[in-house]
Fold each of these.
Amino acid sequence: MASRSSPPKAGQAAQSTSTPASWSPGFQPPARRTPDPLTRGLGWASAGLGVPMLVAPRWFNRFIGVGEAPRHQATTAFAGVRELAAAAGLLGSENPVWLWSRVAGDLVDLGLLGWSLANHDKQGWQRTAAATAAVVGITGLDLYAAVTRSQRKSEMDLTAAVTVSTSPREAYGQWRQLESLPQFMAHLDEVRSTGNGTTHWRASAPFGRSVEWDAEIVEDVAGERIAWRSVGDPDIPNEGEVRFRPAPGGRGTEIHVTMRYWVPGGKLGETVARYFGEDPHQQLDDDLRRFKQIVETGEVVRSDGAPWGKRARREFPQHPARPLSPNELEEVRS
Amino acid sequence: MRANCWMGRNSVAVQDVPDPSILNRRDAIVKITSTAICGSDLHLVDGYVPTMQKGDVMGHEFMGEVVEVGDGVDSGKLQVGDRVVVPFPIACGACAACQAELYSCCENTNPNAGLAEKMFGHPTAGIFGYSHLTGGFAGGQSEYARVPFADVGPLKIESDLADDQVLFLSDILPTGYMGAEMCDIDPGDVVAVWGAGPVGQFAMDSARLLGADTIIAIDKEPYRLEMAAQAGYTPLNFEDVDVRSALLELTGGRGPDKCIDAVGMEATHGSLPVYAYDRAKQATRAESERPYALRQAIMSCRSGGTVSVIGVYGGFADKFPSGSWMNRSITLKTGQCHVQRYMKPLLQHIEQGDLDPTRIITHTLPLEQAPHGYDIFKHKQDNCEKVVLKPAANGGGA
Ligand SMILES: NC(=O)c1ccc[n+]([C@@H]2O[C@H](COP(=O)([O-])OP(=O)(O)OC[C@H]3O[C@@H](n4cnc5c(N)ncnc54)[C@H](O)[C@@H]3O)[C@@H](O)[C@H]2O)c1
Ligand SMILES: [Zn+2]
Ligand SMILES: [Zn+2]
């Protein structure tokens, strides 16, 4: 009955039945829904190339001055399929992943063209050289689009829930001391009250970076609900909400947490972070488990294998399950 | 201090490791006087439980004297100098599972709950010396051990009962008892127990205590079957007979009313091709169990009967006889033992002489000889049934 994993992927809050229908973003996140001309332009360019490559590969190859043997035509047709897939992706979702797929495709094409130039029968050599130059230019454009579009902020929703054996009021009371959130939330280093319902937060971000922001409480209903959001122009705009409700049959209190971040690097950043073992969903689940430990037993439980409490980021391998040396103990206690 | 450590598949070694210290406010440090080797330890040594790490201290059956307590330990419940038996599951006493006396499912004591959740769907309690999946807690095959939530689990022994009489309250006696209790034994019941290892023997003793009429012991080791026969149970060697037919024979064609699997994931099979099939799948990780005892128990049990599983399983079983289970209204019950639930009542049974846990001890060795103990216990040499280790016999201090 510990915390349940939130929706498996970012941006799927809708899937979670626990997300309140009344969720109201406290501020306007960076607009993301207006079509991006560059992305769409590259999408149409992909479509414009992909159709002739697939439908008339022989004609296309003659046009750029490369071989017309069946295997050369097949290569071109295959590249056409790739272009059409990128077109569909870019025009459909504008997801930067498709821009990166274009960059990868460009590199393959450059390799093929380079090979053609090196092994050319000299007929139509200029046309092949021109095509190569064009692809070099397009690669630059794709790379630019991919990098800049990937840096857009994308929204990441995390939800998690846990049931604790205390009353909603007690659980709420514990959470309402925002200053003690860092006791169990792994990424938080400090939350400091700055008066009047405002707080200053400091957190560690992936890759050893650190971020700070100011936040204000936007809703506070004793024993039921706390909601806060960042103010100003922070690097990672974010907001959070915790709802406390009695579990059925006197089973204590259900705690439902929703956190929303607008993260730079979007999905790509999240994927990379996950690769380095900082899956944000898992982290929120673990945060709630530690909250439960504090509420029910008074402190975060430590073992020889995971002696660092909330700093135990890495699941495995850990410290061996044997007592810590005096030095290790020193480090854990500091 | 000296401690018996997991050094890799099929390898344990007694090594120097740091002395344990208090990490949480409700910890105690126990100076160990007796500790034991369990069939569960064999699953670790044989490499069937994932997330073991080189250097992990083994052991989850231990007792001793409290030599230090954290400042959060309730002094009305535990003090320095107390003599205690430590239950193998670590339980907080406060969560919903603990309040329902499901101590081995405690929701707060496994710092690696996220890992366990991936494996099991939901996490389970911390366990001493039993992989990082159950928290990465150092075990008790050592001179000292750190015991978290020391004012919840450990049972104080205030009488002058010898270590050997109470040590098994830490695990196998409650486990055997829970195995029998889950059977809801009615007068006249025939209970068949797969496995005449220490856990199986105690399941048999408990079944008798709970009123079973006839108790059948199934194993292949003649000396273990002999031990069961000595205690008054009907031995059945699965290498000599077809188990299902033999059970039908012994029960007038009804099949046993209640069946207990006290074997677990490393069962062997009388028929070589069948054994080779699951052995190969297990070696290639296509399944994690060799569930012969479980399959046989379900197939053999009378319709409407109960199969109680205390043998440990770790992952996924193949060829689970779901048709037999479902169509014949069989009840399947199981669990890691909720030891804390049974310690006091079983201590009473020991004091009254209803149970004699010492009957299974065949070897008492100094801690230093733990690797030898594992060897004879695993390979069933020297008629080994249960090994008790004595850290004090080491000669040296911490
Ligand atoms: N549920 C719990 O809380 C709990 C606690 C302790 C131990 N256990 C488990 O109980 C099981 C037994 O423990 P143990 O200490 O007695 O171990 P053990 O290895 O000494 O005993 C197992 C016995 O089963 C026999 N066996 C093997 N294949 C068999 C088969 N197909 N049919 C019948 N018998 C067969 C072996 O010959 C052996 O005597 C292990 O899986 C152990 O992990 C569970
Ligand atoms: Zn055991
Ligand atoms: Zn608990």
Amino acid sequence: MAAVKDDVVLEDLLRIDGLIKVFDGSVRAVDNVSLTVAKGEIFALLGSSGCGKSTLLRMLAGFETPTAGRIYLSGKDITDLPPYQRPINMMFQSYALFPHLNVWDNVAFGLRRDGMPKDELAERVESMLKLVQLGKFAKRKPHQLSGGQQQRVALARSLAKRPKLLLLDEPLGALDKKLRESTQLELVNIIEQVGVTCVLVTHDQEEAMTMASRIAVMNEGYFLQIGTPDEIYETPNSRLVADFIGNVNIFEGEVVEDEADHVTVRCPECLHYVGHGITGTPGMAVGVALRPEKIHLSREQPDKPHNWCAGDVADIAYFGAHTTYHLTLVTGMTLKVQQPNLTRHSGQGLTWGDRIYAHWSQDAMVVLTQ
Amino acid sequence: MLARLISRFRSVFRGRNAVILVPMLWLFVLSAVPLLIVLNFSFSEMEIASVASIWKWADDALTIKINLGNYLYFGQDPLYFDTYLSSLKFAAITTLWCLALGYPFAYFMARAQAHLRPMLVMLVMLPFWTSFLLRIYAWKTLLVSNGLVNQLLMALGVIHTPLQMMNTPFSLTIGMVYAYLPFMILPLYANLVKLDVRLLEAAADLGASPWKTFWLITVPLSKRGIIAGSMLVFIPAVGEYVIPELLGGPDTLMIGRVLWDEFFSNNDWPMASAVTIVMILLILLPITIFNKYNAESKSEEQA
Amino acid sequence: MKSPFSKRLAVVLAAAVVTAGLASSAWADKEKVLNIYNWSDYIAPDTIANFEKETGIKVRYDNFDSNEILHAKLVAGQTGYDIVVPSSQWAKIQIQGGLLQKLDKSKLPNWKNLDPSLLTQLSKVDPGNQYLVDWLWGYTTVGINVDKVKAALGGMPMPDNAWELVFNPKYMAKLKSCGVSFLDSPSEILPAALHYLGKPPYSQNVADYNAAYNVLKPIRPYVTLFSSSGYINDMANGSICVALGWSGDINIARRRAIANKSGQNIEALVPKNGGLAFFDTMAIPVDAPHPENALMFINYILRPEVDASLTNTVFYANPNKASLKYVTPVVANNKTIFLSPEDQKKLVIPDAVNNDVRRVMTRLYTRFKTGV
Ligand SMILES: Nc1ncnc2c1ncn2[C@@H]1O[C@H](COP(=O)(O)OP(=O)(O)OP(=O)(O)O)[C@@H](O)[C@H]1O
Ligand SMILES: [Mg+2]
């Protein structure tokens, strides 16, 4: 969603150009990364632990100096600015609240550095505290607050200066699962209310999908794929992305037929007829990704030449809203299948060891060439 | 009745309490008892070659004769007030210099690479490996009029006649700061090394320059280290005897010398005890303030 | 009567060890051990060794450098020492306070060697000579570097009375340029000032001491060094030209200057109205663990040759009439060591002062030295 010339849809706020960070002469924590983030976007950096998310974020904040590459904010090169001169604020993973200052003074800290007049400052701090619903706690010290309250103080503090860009490093990482889910939406609400552009780091794909308008999936310092949440989920461009985002079954096979509107892929387990074209050639080795929730089960053998296979139930996991079955296929591959529990007894009476047929539609799959 | 008392006693000193009992007893024997003896002496009077007892047992009656004369004497001679004041002054000057020199020292030690830190701590403690007296004497040889410092300055042409450095407040301050600096550095270091760098980053992120960050974050958060270091320097410095005796001069009278005179020149143990008690009371004040701070900031640090 | 603080501290520490190690044990007297606590630099090199060889008694020899330290230890008790050497005026208080024990003279056959006139003088602090035996004696006086003083005074003639040199601002103002050293102790300076004033040096009257302070105050700016031991070297090498010091020390400085060929001509003066005598006396603490051995040692010291060797080493006179023929001629003929009968008669004999006076002395001395 980069800005399109002559068609001012969205204005670029942040542009990263070939950014590289090498630690200790050999660890390439961030490896030639380029990116643009539009104004008002919530952009998520998603990746497994150690892939370089924090390092990238810290370069944006100014805590790390890039080994190479430039960073532009509103078209201005800020690569060499020290952190305290960047119109960027960060909310730290551990919140990094100043333990010796109360909530009010924590929020006011940045404003005081700008020498904001007293009245305006008080007004701003009040409104920030109101925004995060902590008006009553202004006089408390951080250690007198719960984890969730601390998180909101940290948010208020990082928003108080009305930064052009807000950086969030694992903003909800320290909260328990339930609180995290409710806070995700609240956080998005607040960010949208303020209208700040936001780069968010997380290793939780659900969080990224819920909160972000676009996601960059990172691996070993570089971007695997950048796209909207549904793009990333429905059309992952590689095995790594498919694997990282949600649950997926990947069949390995080779292309037998490659047409403009469909491909056929032969795998040891079955023949796939995929309803979209790829850029490939017959004989090419590919993967076919199939999400567990897009598979149907039936006791009768389906009446079609492709997109089904037989298996034995090896495991049944009941999750309340849905049930996950693990089927062992003829080749020994395990196929994960997810079935919604639409009625109270929708388990079809399946039990361990039952022979069952899995089938899916031609739009359920994505062919992965890498 | 007795049985109840015993069981009561047992329940008080069971488990955790019993464990505390050992150091408590130790503290009592090693500091409370001597202090009580000194207190007892301070209410007494000197006879020809012994201290008169304030306790008298006669005709089945215990009479205690508390002589306040020693304490009242403080009011009669400005010597005591003046020397207490001058001791506090030199102790305060020493503490401030130690803080000014020790803080950057501790700061850079704490910011040094982790594998270098044990060695730096070692270097700070290195002087303790040689005799304290020797090290103070070494300063004497450096500072005398034909000493190394003067010779060097004269060789460089900075001065033409030797500077009078020995036996001045200058030489005393140098000696005191030198001797007490490690006691400032070590607690400060222990405190600063725990400082969360993310707080410094957060401050920078919010627009504070490194200088502002230092004053607004680092210093307040190392308050406990500053206070601990200052106490460790200030308290012994007030009663210091050896350094003023070796490096001080006529205008650096400190209470340690007065104490020595009371004890040895005047051979007046009760008066010496009274001087000591007043000194302890003077020192108790900063300790109390420290403890109050300590209790306050402890809960903060746990956050 | 000498030496700086470090020695003092070392002495205290050593003494503490001795005390801990030796504190009264029933069988101690059978031990072949003797613990002596004496002034530093106050003995001949072979004195101890010869005694040990002869008797098989192991001697532990510790030093102190002020009567105050010794007194404090005796008052605290359990020193572990068998022989201590207080100055006579301090010994007087110690006798009164019951800190010393009487000597068994039947064990001291050499007692006969003692000079009767000295015994008479000591009997003023020790009636009947029951507790004390003189070790050596000397006097507090003024020592000068003859040439430097002459030069510093310019045309001014030397005063008639040597005390004038150190107590009259007229002279002191000139002498400051070549360096003036005072003994660092109230019990040395104040009696000297009183004596200069013509008042009783060991006065029990506080008003006298205030008068003495008024003498001291104006000369304070001219005193360049307070020292009870370092001044020997400073005199010998010429960095001070006048010392209010001890006769023997000044003679040691003189000998050192001659030995080093430093060209400094040092002389102890005998003031016209007399120096302030001191008698350092051997005594046995009341709780001494080995009093028998102590008596043996005292008797040994009283041998003419042994006493003579002390005098030959440290330039202080001994109380032993019979020793004179063993004293080297240079020392024997030095009229500042063995005073002429007239000078000896003018010597001021020390006496103890009461606690109140001691306090006043300390206080005035502190004010003199520091201005506080
Ligand atoms: N200061 C540093 N010195 C050396 N190597 C570093 C430094 N900081 C990070 N690294 C390395 O760079 C790589 C990326 O680290 P980074 O902290 O950016 O990971 P991350 O994606 O944030 O991981 P996580 O999700 O666990 O926080 C890691 O291999 C890490 O060991
Ligand atoms: Mg991270």
